[in-house]
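Researcher: Here's the sequence for the chain we discussed earlier.
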Amino acid sequence: MDPDLAMLIGLVLGVFTVPSIMSAISDGRAPRVAAFTGIAAGTLVLWAVSNKPGGYDLSDLPDILVRVIARYLG
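Model: Thanks. This is the structure I predict for it:
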């Protein structure tokens, strides 16, 4: 898995984790699945940052999104 794909998957999982945590808390449940998803998202992002030469910049994220989608769909 290349670092760009790992970064994109980690960010998408991280975005989906927030509503899951909020839903679990508002229903009075323990956010077990959301916690696992958050850990997986954080691990993927950290792995991507550590394996990308030069790291990532916040302004690189839209370009990463387009490159990964173009690579796997095109």
